[in-house]
Amino acid sequence: METAILKELITDFLRSRYYKNHELSPNKNNRVLLVNTDDLEENNFNKTDGKYVSADCVKIEYLIRKNDIILAPLTPSSNNIEKVFFFNQEPECKMTISNNKNIIRVDETRINPGYLANVLNSSLFKQYLYPY
Questions:
Q1: Where is the signal peptide (predicted)?
Q2: Among 28, 34, 55, 100, which residue's Cβ finds the most Cβ atoms within 10 Å?
């Protein structure tokens, strides 16, 4: 999917009523990492800490604060990300949250604008971003 489309969908989510009703702490940035699992092998993911994905994977990091979104590559120094969102291009859909509460995985999912918009607006994703 085009990066611009992903950014537009996330921006729409940030402008949504739900997001505006859940203010983020001014002293804390919420980061969401989207990783294309088509390019992610199991041994590239550090499951013990759950917050680091190796630099050879295709990845997009969204730094979310208020109504702003910043697009940046993930680097080893970015291993303090709080949320990880996995997706790939397979035709079937299956969403799970791993044992590590910092990770949400969308496996065997065909990513398209409509599906991603539904994921971003799903109660599961919202509870994941805002667990309170």
A1: none
A2: 34
